[in-house]
Amino acid sequence: MHQTGPTQRYMQELQEGIEQIWEVAQELGLRPFPTHFEIVPAAVMYEIGSYGMPGRFSHWTHGKAYQMQKTMYDYGLSKIYELVINTNPCYAFLLETNTVLQNKLVAAHVLAHSDFFANNAHFAKTSRRMVDTVSLNADRIRRYEFEHGTDEVERLLDAALSIQEHIDPYITPEDVQPAKPEAPRRPASTYDDLFRLDERGEPEPEPSDEDSSRLRPAQPVRDLLLFILTHSPRLDDWERDVVSIVRTEMLYFYPQLQTKIINEGWASYWHAQIMRELDLSTDEYLEFAQLHAAILQPSPRRINPYHLGYRILEDIERRANEAGEDGRAKLFEVREVESDVSLIRNYLTEELVEDLDLYLYQRVGDELVIVDKSWESVRERLCAQLTNHGFPVIQVEDGDFNGNSELYLRHVWDGEKLDLHYAQKTMEHIYRLWDRRIWLETRKDEDEPLILSYDAREGHKIHT
To answer: What are the C-alpha distances in Å from 12 to residues 30, 37, 81, 280, 317?
Structure first.
């Protein structure tokens, strides 16, 4: 008879192992949230992975991600060993097809992630009840689908999700208000006090129609979703609510984008420390060493965040110890304050770049060619790529361009050209949210400006 699911012996051994791992983690100085572990089949693991959170709203992009991940798993091309949710208590999901030893390592990895969530400054403002929040959001979206039709809600979600990365966690709705025109000032004189007495009780002058129609922000706004949510001339209340849901959930995920390298490096460093404290048999230790090596395996084509983060943290500890400091205490200090950008900026050394064999390359014809191995160049390129997580920076310059509520956006040039086809499709989605002509200023290259526009009636235009 075929045995399905983990056996009672498997569960008992794993439970005892996780209890021991928790004690070891505490002794080593980790302070994770209380963590609830669940053993789940691959289908559930990949569903949660593709949605980002259990209970999140349905959308075809989540289904697409699920199908891709599940197919890769079915063909043995990739595997998710664990998922951990930044909540208090923390929720972690272990794959039922893992061995007990594999899930012990994963549990140690999870507790380090939980410690990072609980103690890193970039996660300090994230909601620790987000599982409940996304479930309530999903309920509201299902209600809107009933009231306004599934297709209409899906088109709105298509539009909002197309620009979900273009947010700024450091601004508030007040920061996207239009600049206020200054009131005319009377020339200074010795009678100013009398004038002020004479003006007491008089109402403030009403802004002119021209002033009130202006939607030029005082400073360019990077949070495109917030600007549209606040100022769109066409969105109904329920549509604003959907856009707000997308932005709120993206703000929750944003710190994870900011800390991918340091977070995975931290978890990898500590799962290694914890597993070495356990009383493993020779076979178990060999299995652990093989899995640990596979996790940290560098790639010739892209950065492995586990490997890079782990090696930087190891180097920080080593150099602190050599300088007569407490290397472990230094690591906890780094864990509290750093993001990926600051970690690379402050701690990626010339020796590490050489040792890790990091370099810059580009495609020349049909070949990939190394173009720079300078450690400063490597560091600067990594910081530039991580600053906006690989997405172009798009700023709102004017919400009333041409005095007709047209939306003027500007691509902050960083030397990387936009994919014009992708940009134009995104402008169509933004039009769905704004309902006026959309402008996008970018560049063909360093010296050649390019302006795109889109209006549903006239289609796309390119202005050079």
So the answer is: 24, 13, 20, 17, 36
| Main-chain phi, psi angles of 364, to 5 degrees | -120, 105
Q: What is the C-alpha to C-alpha distance for residues 46 and 342, in angstroms, rounded to an integer?
A: 32
CB of 227 within 8 A of CB of 176? yes
Give the pLDDT band (50/70/90) at residue 69.
Answer: confident
Q: How confident is the model at residue 80 (pLDDT cuts 50, 70, 90)?
A: confident
Tell me the C-alpha distance between 103 and 99, whole Å: 6
282 pLDDT higher than 50: yes
Mean pLDDT within 23-40: 96
Three-state secondary structure string covering the chain: CCCCCCCHHHHHHHHHHHHHHHHHHHHCCCCCCCEEEEEECHHHHHHHHHHCCCCCCCCHHHHHHHHHHHHHHHCCCCCCCEEEECCCCEEEEEECCCCHHHHHHHHHHHHHHHHHHHHCHHHCCCCCCHHHHHHHHHHHHHHHHHHHCHHHHHHHHHHHHHCCCCCCCCCCHHHHCECCCCCCCCCCCCCHHHHHHHHCCCCCCCCCHHHHHCCCECCCECCHHHHHHHHCCCCCHHHHHHHHHHHHHHHHHHHHHHCHHHHHHHHHHHHHHHHHHCCCCHHHHHHHHHHHHHHCCCCCCCCCHHHHHHHHHHHHHHHHHHCCCCHHHHHHHHHHHCCHHHHHHHHCCHHHHHHHCCCEEEEECCEEEEEECCHHHHHHHHHHHHHCCCCCCEEEEEEEECCCCEEEEEECCCCCCCCHHHHHHHHHHHHHHHCCCEEEEEEEECCEEEEEEEECCCEEEEEC
pLDDT tens per residue across span 177-219: 766 554 444 444 554 444 444 444 444 444 444 443 467 888 8
Confidence of residue 74 (pLDDT cuts 50, 70, 90): confident
Mean pLDDT is lowest, of 39-43, 81-85, 231-235, 261-265, for: 81-85
